[in-house]
Write a structure and sequence with these properties.
The protein has helices at residues 5-47, 66-109; strands at residues 52-57, 60-65. It is mainly alpha-helical. β1 and β2 (60-65) form a beta hairpin. It is rod-shaped.
Length: 110
C-alpha cells in the first residue's frame, strides 16, 4: 500500500513527537537525579555541626559557610522543581499530540 503525502506527513509528525517525548523523559530523569543529589547534600549539611564546608567550584574546592551553601542548594532545588513542572506540562502536550496522531494513523491503517 502506497502512502499519500498527507499520510507520510502524519507518520513523520508521529516520529518527531515520539523523539520529543523521549528527550523530555531523559531531561526529567536528569532533573530527578540532580534533585536527589541536592537533597542528599542538604541532609548531610543538616547532620553536620560544621560552620564551614567545602564546595566544588569548577576544578577547585572552596571553603564556604555551611549556611550559605545550604541556601544555594535550596535555590538550586527550587529552580529544578520549576523546570520539572515545566517539563511535565510539555510532556502532557506532546503525549496528547501523540495520541491524536495515533488515532489518525489508526484510521489510515485500520
Amino acid at each position: 500500500m502506497e502512502l499519500t503525502e498527507e499520510q507520510k506527513s502524519l507518520v513523520q509528525q508521529f516520529q518527531f513527537y515520539q523523539q520529543q517525548l523521549q528527550n523530555i523523559l531523559l531531561q526529567k530523569e536528569s532533573i530527578r537525579l540532580q534533585v536527589a543529589e541536592i537533597e542528599e547534600s542538604l541532609e548531610e549539611l543538616k547532620a553536620s555541626k560544621e560552620k564551614d564546608v567545602y564546595k566544588i567550584v569548577g576544578s577547585i574546592m572552596v571553603k564556604k559557610p555551611a549556611e550559605e551553601v545550604r541556601k544555594e542548594l535550596e535555590e538550586s532545588k527550587e529552580s529544578l522543581d520549576v523546570r520539572m513542572k515545566s517539563m511535565e506540562k510539555v510532556e502532557e502536550k506532546v503525549t496528547e499530540k501523540l495520541k491524536e496522531l495515533q488515532e489518525k494513523l489508526k484510521g489510515i491503517v485500520g
